[in-house]
Amino acid sequence: MNNFIEIKNLKKTFNVSSNNQLLLFENLNLNISKKSTTSIIGPSGCGKSTLLNIIGLLDSSFYGEYFFDGVLINNINKNKLNQIKNLKIGFVHQFFHLIPELSVIENIILPALIKKDNISDIHNDAENLLKVFEIFDKKNMKPNKLSGGEQQRVAIARSLINKPSIILADEMTGNLDEKTSDDIINFFLKFVANHNISLMYVTHNQRYADMANIKYELKNKNLVAK
User: Fold this and answer.
1) For 70, how many CA atoms within 13 A lie in the half-sphere containing its CB?
2) pTM above the 0.85 mark?
């Protein structure tokens, strides 16, 4: 089976008050194939970020079945869940979430330290990413010395350090000007295609959404293929 993420009959509710619930998704189904690029567009508040958090194993309070590479996520223990989340899923946020006290290269290698691999190999991988992202000369700088576009490149490089199966990107250009956003999205789409990484991203920008192989709109509590 080519699908390595499969979600069946997803239902998600939020407690608005003690006697009031908000239904965010109902009977939502989603298949993500290997080496695919998928976009989701929709208005603010429709649940795009929540859906990414569920796929990224950051939110487990839902109804329905979730299979990751053939494994039913609903039934696995916390250690196995964390292993999948840390080693097979990369996350890129709108706000870069870089640690200000750490240098650029230290921010990038941080997720890889969980694997307890050879630190020299981790540094080499990080330096190679810095070269690909054309920020090698910034490796010892602190994040606050970088432009917004450079910080987002660091955040993307960090998401790739563990060689994940899929990258989930939540409005990754939302904090950047149009030219920088164009540069980031074009570079990133080319990179994941060349390295056979699946990508799912949410955006408000229709032009960016149209760049994906598979396109969805999130509305009426479900995904609609575009």
Assistant:
1) 2
2) yes
